[in-house]
Amino acid sequence: MNLEQVSKLESKLLVSTYDRYPVLLHKGSGVHLYDNKGRKYLDLLSGIGVNALGYAHPALTKTIAKQAKLLVHTSNLFYHEYQGRLAAALTKISGMDRAFFTNSGTEAWEGALKLARAYAKANCGEGKEPKWRILALEHAFHGRTFGALATTHKEKYRAPFAPVVPGVEFVRFNDVTDLESKFDSTVCAIGFEFVQGEGGIRPVSQQFADVAHKLARKHNALLIADEIQSGMGRTGRWFAYQNYGIQPDLVTVAKPIAGGLPLGALLATEKVSACIHPGMHGTTFGGGPLACAVALQLIKVLEKEKMLKHIQKVGDYFMDQLQKLKKKHGNIVAVRGQGLMIGMELDSAEAAKQVFQQMLKRGTIVNRTDETVIRFLPPFIIKKQHIDTAVQQLDQVLAQNTKTAAIAGRNK
């Protein structure tokens, strides 16, 4: 089928939830994608942070082929050999104690919210003030399921489904005073991305993180780290919170964890996991043998190839090159991020839209988030020459757009 046929079929039969780009993808290799006509694209988005090792990585494809012949799904009524091994690997790199496996990031976040309420009920004590409020941050994005939606900040996501789950209050981003005014003994948890993804690649400040951690300890509330986009090495550490010297109570993981297969995880401390028992929570597909086997292989590759150091090195190089563009082009407002999680903020939504569209025409995939931010989430295996290609294209696009805007201004 060609692009027109696929588009026509989807428009007739699919629920209208996505504005797709006019590209029919066929295959991938390394950091590149190919459409049905054989055109090559440099992928700086990696399936929105999912394809950590790019496409058709030999170690992952070999594991998929081998395990698919043995066992793909069992349900959680029985044992298989990979859940325990993967839990051991994840707790080792995270500093957490236990794991619960899910299908997705938003499902992991839902589990975290439930555990936060369960922990509060178990530790509140009779006669004490109710403890059920949850704090989240402005610009936060934690998912689209009903509970997660209540902690996702943008009104456009929540308004069509209001009223959402009650008890959530938003704190102004990096505003310590606002945080302190809203955090009291009725709060059972504060949850945030240490580097916001959909919110525009915004790292929290060290001061904000420290105060949030301190207040959580003071009020016996939980600190939940959303590492769905920033975790598994994306920022140059296994998890973004490790850049802050802070240990959370709950950690949600997904996107890159299984190299493209659906898998998520909720990591918990011993004290928190003690508040849940069989029957209180569960999942059908989470933690299946195929996904877990691939996740174990991905971690093995990241360790064997010293990928975290590579991410730090090429991430710094990418950031430096974008900072040079910022000095050259006045419509770049800011460049920010950590590791290979980088955002380039432009001075208008239209400017960001034009950059995305022109980059796609040139054969490089990025995307626009928070309206004005060009987001870069390349595969971890990206090299400097790929970055050079993208930066050169960005330079050309920004220069052309500035020239076009100037001509339009003179013709008014």
Which properties best describe this structure?
alpha/beta, 14 helices, 4-stranded mixed sheet, Aspartate Aminotransferase, domain 1, 412 residues, 17 strands, Aspartate Aminotransferase, domain 2
Helix/strand class: alpha/beta
Overall, the morphology is globular
Order of strands, main sheet, comes to 4-12-11-10-7-5-6
The low-confidence runs, each spanning 5 or more residues with pLDDT under 50, are: none
Percentage of residues assigned to helices: 40-55%
CATH homologous superfamily annotation of the largest domain: Type I PLP-dependent aspartate aminotransferase-like (Major domain)
Count of individual beta strands: 17
CATH C-level class of the largest domain is Alpha Beta
What is the domain tally? 2
- From the alpha carbons, calculate the radius of gyration and give it in angstroms: 22 Å
β-sheet strand percentage: 15-25%
Mean residue pLDDT: 95
How would you sum up the major sheet?
A: 7 strands, mixed
